[in-house]
């Protein structure tokens, strides 16, 4: 994607009036182009197949599964932000464990939504308090069994530090850091918490307490 071209953003929501608010809000974000709204994921894939980032309402009138919707969008290469009223904590907890780049409550200030969209447009996850709360309440996060050194590598690497910087900070070779990252990914995959990308590693680090949750010391 060219750095000069805005990221194409679409909305999945079955309340047409929401489009008016989104269009007005996103007009203030020059890094994105708002394509429009669709009431279902299926219709979005037909109407806006070139969307790069999708803001997805978790509860739609067609009764579709939020997890299936996220999966369908990701299979088409679209990044996803979950947009929720938060009335179903179970759905929010499930979605928090998928490849979404953020979870935003509908009652949140517009600035929070826009910040999340800006981050997602840049391919970065933004850990909101809503997301953190969902993870904190999840009783089913299996322990990956990382060693102390693996935890240290994960905590640094997942924040965005380059491999060389992690190696220098820990006094180890770059190749050793790369070996640690491979082992970390393997251990998470074995317990059903795959972490193939750096964003996934960031989420695993938050989930397991190796990095602080937003809003906490």
From TrEMBL:
Pfam family, one: GerE
Modified residues (4-aspartylphosphate): 57
Keyword DNA-binding on entry: yes
Domain Response regulatory as annotated: residue spans: 8-121
Claim: Coiled coil is one of the keywords in the record: no
Signal peptide: none
Record key words, sorted: DNA-binding, Phosphoprotein
Domain of life, source organism: Bacteria
Gene3D superfamilies: 3.40.50.2300, Winged helix-like DNA-binding domain superfamily/Winged helix DNA-binding domain (1.10.10.10)
Coiled-coil intervals: none
Protein name: LuxR C-terminal-related transcriptional regulator
Upper lineage: Bacteria, Bacillati, Actinomycetota, Actinomycetes, Micrococcales
């Amino acid at each position: 994607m060219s750095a000069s071209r805005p990221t194409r953003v679409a909305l999945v929501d079955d309340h047409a009036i929401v489009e008016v608010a989104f269009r007005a809000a996103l007009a203030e974000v020059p890094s994105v182009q708002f394509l429009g709204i669709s009431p279902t994921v299926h219709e979005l894939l037909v109407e806006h197949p070139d969307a790069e980032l999708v803001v997805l309402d978790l509860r739609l009138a067609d009764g579709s599964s939020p997890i299936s919707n996220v999966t369908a969008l990701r299979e088409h290469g679209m990044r996803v932000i979950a947009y929720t009223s938060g009335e179903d904590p179970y759905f929010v907890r499930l979605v928090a464990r998928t490849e979404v780049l953020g979870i935003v409550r509908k009652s949140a200030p517009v600035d929070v939504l826009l910040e999340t969209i800006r981050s997602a447009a840049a391919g970065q996850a933004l850990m909101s308090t809503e997301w953190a709360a969902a993870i904190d309440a999840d009783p089913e996060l299996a322990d990956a069994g990382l060693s102390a050194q693996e935890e240290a590598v994960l905590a640094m690497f997942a924040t965005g530090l380059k491999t060389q910087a992690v190696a220098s900070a820990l006094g180890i070779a770059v190749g050793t850091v790369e070996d640690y990252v491979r082992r970390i990914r393997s251990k998470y995959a074995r317990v059903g918490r795959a972490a193939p990308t750096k964003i996934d590693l960031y989420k695993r680090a938050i989930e397991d307490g190796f990095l602080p949750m937003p809003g906490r010391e």
